[in-house]
Amino acid sequence: MIMNVKEIKPKGLFRALKSTTYEVTAALEEKEQTVNPLPALHAPLKMHDSINFAANEKLKFRHRNQHPFIRKAVMIWKKR
Q1: Which residues, 6+ apart, have CB-to-CB distance to 6 below 8 Å?
Q2: Ramachandran angles phi, psi of 8, nearest 5°
Q3: Is the dihedral of CA 35, 38, 41, 43 positive or negative?
Q4: Degrees to nearest 5, angle at CA 74 with 72 and 78
Q5: How far apart are CA 77 and CA 80, in angstroms?
Q6: What does the alpha-carbon distance between residue 25 and residue 65 come to, in Å, rounded to a whole number?
Q7: pTM
Q8: What is the 3-class SS of 48-63, one letter each residue?
Q9: What is the dihedral of CA 53, 54, 57, 62, to 10 degrees?
């Protein structure tokens, strides 16, 4: 579908030697795609046997007051 046609006249010293150009704006209408939901409802859930969710190393969590920045801020606040 053509949306707009714009005539662009040449400019400059040699405009008599140049031809007029046209700018065309067009749009393509997309077809609506419909998906049949029935195969997805009847298909079994995919199970991945190759994924291992176990942690390989011990995780260390700091107490919120053990972070050096927070520890310093608490010390400054207590001195008040």
Answers
A1: 22, 23, 24, 25
A2: -115, 110
A3: negative
A4: 120
A5: 6
A6: 63
A7: 0.35
A8: CCCCCCCCCCCCCCCC
A9: 80
- Residue 30 corresponds to which amino acid? E
Residue with tokens 């209408």: 29
Q: Is 2 helix (H, G, I), strand (E, B) or coil?
A: strand
Tokens standing for residue 52: 């291992």
Tens-place pLDDT, residues 15-74: 888 898 999 999 888 887 777 777 766 666 665 666 666 667 776 766 666 677 777 787
Q: How far apart are the first and last CA of the chain?
A: 74
| Total length of the chain | 80
Burial of 38 (0-12, 13-18, 19+ CB in 10 A): exposed
| Neighbour-count burial for 57-68, b at 16+ CB within 10 Å, e otherwise | eeeeeeeeeeee
